[in-house]
Write a structure and sequence with these properties.
It is a single chain. With about 80 residues, the protein is mainly beta. It is built from 1 helix and 4 strands. The strands form 2 sheets. It has a two-stranded parallel sheet. A two-stranded antiparallel ribbon has the order 2-3. The longest helix has 11 residues.
Length: about 80
């Protein structure tokens, strides 16, 4: 949904170029202290990367946005 508070030229669009990456996010019940270990309660994989994140942010602000990027030839790239 476009944000009416953001002024932009009519019909403007942006293409973001970068690498697509995967973040592995471990959910823990408590933060470990130095030299401590905790067991993760869940593991989440999220598609990210600076250009991809910027494209999503721009789109949420109402800008027509596209992302062009590379994907690695590994297990994460197959997801």
């Amino acid at each position: 949904m476009p944000n009416p508070a953001v002024a932009r030229p009519s019909g403007s669009s942006v293409v973001f170029v970068g690498a697509a990456t995967i973040d592995s996010i471990a959910l823990v019940g408590e933060f470990p202290t130095p030299d401590d270990r905790v067991v993760a309660e869940d593991l989440i994989f999220a598609g990210v990367g600076p250009a991809a994140t910027a494209a999503v942010t721009a789109a949420r602000l109402g800008v027509t946005a596209a992302f062009v990027g590379t994907v690695g030839d590994d297990a994460d790239g197959e997801r």
